[in-house]
Each structure stands twice: as C-alpha cells, then as structure tokens.
Specification:
The chain has about 375 residues and is of the alpha/beta class. Helix content is about 25%, strand content about 35%. The protein has 2 domains: about 120 residues, no CATH class; about 220 residues, no CATH class.
Amino acid sequence: MQQHGAITLAVSLTILTLSTLVGFAVSRAMLMEQKLTNNEVRAMQAFDAAEAGMMQAYSYLVAYPDDTAYAAMEMVGAASVAVSVTELSGDRPRLLVSAQGAADDHSAGASLSQQLVRLNALPGMPLTPLIARGALTFSGVTRIRNPEGSSTLWSGGGIDLGTHPDSATAVPDMTDAGYPVCLELPGSCVLVTASSRTLPGIDMLAHDASLAESDAEEFFHNFFGMPPQRYRATMVSIDTAGTAAQAALQLAQNEVIWVEGSHSFNGGTVGCSTALSAGQLCPPASQGPAIVIVNGDADIVGALHFYGMLFVLGELTLSATVTLHGAAAVAGNVSGGSIDIWYNSGLLLSAAHSGPLAVSAGSWKDF
C-alpha cells in the first residue's frame, strides 16, 4: 500500500510540475504575442502617419508648386509625422519628399520618401520658330530669327513675307568663328539674313504636304503627345474662356493655359512677371515661360509680348504687333500685320517643365 501511495504522489507531483511548466509556457507565449501585436500596432501607426504626411505634402505641392521649401510636423490621430521637401538638381526639376512617422509613444518609427517630377508638357518641342498647317501671309514688318538652327518658317501652304522692306528672316552665320559651338547656348550665335521679301531662302519651307494633309488634332498631337481634350484634362493648370482669359493670361508664368473658344489678345505680357512695352525685353530673372493653347481662332488686337509656346487650333490673325520669344504653331492660316519672333529652346524647355507633378517611377522608398 505504501508503494502505491508513493507512486500516486510521484505521478501527482509530475502532473503538477508539467501543468506549471505548461502554464508558464502558455503565459510566456501570450505575453510575447501581446508584445508582438503591440509592436505591430505601433509600427502600423508610424507607417500610416508617414504615409498620411506624404499624401498631405503631395496635395500641398500640387496646390502651391512654387513653395518647394515646404516642411511640416503634424499629428495624425495619436501618432505624429515630420515632412520635408528637398529640391534635387538635374535636367528636369525634381522634388524629394521625405516623411518620418512616429507612434503615439514614440516606440516605433517609419521613414518614407519619394521623388516628384513635372510631366513634360511639350514632348514634341518645335525646332522652327513658326509652323502652320495653312498659309503664312504677312502685311507688316516680319522678322523671324532662329539663332539655333537653319529653319525659320514651315508651312503647309504658301509663305509671303509681305511688301515691307524690313521684313526678313535670320539664321546663324556659319562663317562666324563661334559657329557651331554657339548653337549650344540659346541666342548666342551671330545671325545673318537668310530670306527677304524679294529673295526667299532655304530656311523657309512652304507647301509641305505632311502639314497640309494632316488635320488639326494630328497637328496638335505632334507637339503635345496626346489628343487635345485629353491634354486639357491632364496637363492644363489654368482653364479659361471669354473675357476672363485676358486677365488669366496677363503676367502668367510657368503655366499651361487652355483658352476655350476663339480669343482676341488685347495686348499684354505672357510668360514674364514684368509688364513690357515696345522695345523692352523681359529680364532673365523675371522670365517664366508659359504654354498657351487657344481652342479656336486667335486675333492679336493689341501689342503682345509673349515668352513660351503659343499654339492656336484655328486661324491666327495679326491686327497688332506680336513679339514672341520661344515658338508658335498654328493649325490654320496666319495672316495680318507685324510679328517679331526669336526662337529660344531654353524658354521652350522651361515651359515644358510646367506640367503637373507626378510620382517618379521607382523612387518610392520605405526604409
């Protein structure tokens, strides 16, 4: 009997010991799981806060694209986030947005970063100062200068520089000592007359069938890379029409402007922060070249100073003097008075960077 009692006691102690060990193990596992769950919750808090800060910074930069010095520290629920924006150097303007999220007790953190770039608003940048699907017929003083290439006028119809003795085109002087190195620096080449009203040169290309046989939408697509209405929906920063257009255009800088319907330009300055008068040039520090698209006919009824890219989906009538630095393209005919164009690829490239902000592919980092 004593042996049976001893065996029973030993078994009981063994069971008690095992139960205790199992209890400790289960308790420890539960504590570990609770810690892991808490850590995961804190990590998610920090990540969500960083992501919210990233989205807030993106929304802010879309609304205020010039404020690239944006920085903020915000509460996201019980968590917090610090956001900073850094401008990166390169051919295309880029912004590095960094967000540091922290959990409510600061036991966990998350770092996110991504680069934002401006979409190219002018992928088919013209190489000729003035291009038209129709005819180019001028009646005033016509001066077309291309200091960066050998072409000045390109038309699907005829080209008539008019009867004014001062009308002429100009291209770089290939006999100058600075040629062709000067082509790399916009506006630095010495120019020589290429065509006059009585002696047309090879810089003017008329009756080009590829232009004449295209329609307005195809013509538009060549410069902007997509159909007009899609471009309007995705790339335009200012959409205007009627009497409001004149005010929207005046002193507009670094904008992609869509003017719906025919428009009369009653003078003014576009692409420069300073209002210009006859003979004045926009200082480089004040230049902010714009892209202006008129979905209709355009009539210049007052002296216009323009920096950037002008595109007209209809006819362009010159009832007053136009001074343009950059380039212009017209889906119809160009006719009327005086025009003075200086081709400038630097201004066109700058205008091309006026597209909307977008996330650069492959730039997202969460470490």
